[in-house]
Structure to design on (259 residues):
């Protein structure tokens, strides 16, 4: 696991975009794992800019991490719609190459299994972009999630509903249920890149990086990931015991070694 502490979200977005750009140049049909929420938005802004400068997404695929259950198709806060608006329409990725778990399916368990199959059929996720919840969730794997879980239905913790109420008219409109890639699904990605900014994420980032691997902090499962990059700003890094070591390692990183 590599921890990179950067001044702010602009620098974080630029480094993530460098990594995605290098991946797409080497593998134009790469599979990108797409997160929603506020944290990845600067990354999508930067990718849109790079597309204007020629970065080609025409053969790439995108798989969403999660989706609310019960929002009607086209709801502005459904994650499929958020990804369409914030990312897909701003680059030249084919609409049919964007995949998401179906939160409106009549048979949710079958839809979750089909989603796992679709990821496998595409050859797996090359780069999984992640944010982290204040309670340590990744995707919508709330505390207590099995570290081996696959895509399935989950119930949101009230703290997460409150955190996400800012995207909806009121707390009452935030769904209670979601479908999310599991922690085992996320562990299968070839490169996991988690971004976090702001002091409200400091405790979760500490638990993820320096706490025990435990279901109480689902993101801590990334300690078992063979290639995980944790990109944080100073505020989100403020509870890290080894912050100076992470800074030192990044400053002295060999020039040939990418994220
Ligand atoms: C969304 C997702 C969530 C968010 C997390 C942080 O697809 O997977 O894990 O990344 O809730 O959200 P923000 O970035 O809004 O603080």
């Amino acid at each position: 696991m590599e921890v990179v502490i950067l001044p702010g979200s602009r620098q974080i977005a630029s480094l993530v975009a460098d990594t995605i750009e290098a991946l797409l140049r080497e593998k134009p049909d790469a599979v990108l794992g797409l997160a929603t929420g506020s944290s990845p938005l600067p990354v999508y802004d930067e990718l849109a800019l790079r597309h204007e400068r020629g970065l080609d997404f025409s053969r790439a695929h995108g798989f969403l991490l999660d989706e609310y259950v019960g929002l009607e198709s086209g709801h502005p806060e459904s994650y499929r719609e958020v990804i369409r608006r914030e990312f897909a329409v701003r680059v030249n990725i084919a609409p049919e190459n964007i995949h998401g778990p179906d939160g409106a399916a009549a048979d949710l368990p079958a839809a979750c299994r089909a989603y796992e199959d679709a990821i496998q059929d595409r050859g797996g996720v090359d780069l999984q972009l992640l944010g982290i919840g204040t309670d340590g969730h990744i995707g919508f794997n709330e505390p207590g999630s099995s570290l081996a879980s696959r895509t399935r239905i989950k119930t949101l913790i009230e703290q997460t509903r409150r955190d996400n109420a800012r995207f909806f008219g009121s707390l009452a409109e935030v769904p209670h249920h979601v479908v999310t890639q599991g922690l085992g699904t996320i562990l299968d990605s070839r490169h996991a890149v988690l971004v976090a900014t702001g002091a409200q994420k400091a405790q979760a980032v500490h638990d993820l990086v320096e706490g025990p691997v435990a279901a109480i902090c689902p993101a801590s499962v990334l300690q078992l990931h063979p290639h995980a990059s944790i990109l944080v700003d100073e505020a989100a890094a403020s509870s890290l015991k080894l912050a100076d070591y992470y800074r030192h390692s990044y400053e002295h990183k060999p020039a040939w070694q990418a994220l």
Observations:
- The radius of gyration is 17 Å.
- The chain has one domain: 2-251.
- The first helix runs from residue 9 to 26.
- DSSP finds eight helices and ten strands in the chain.
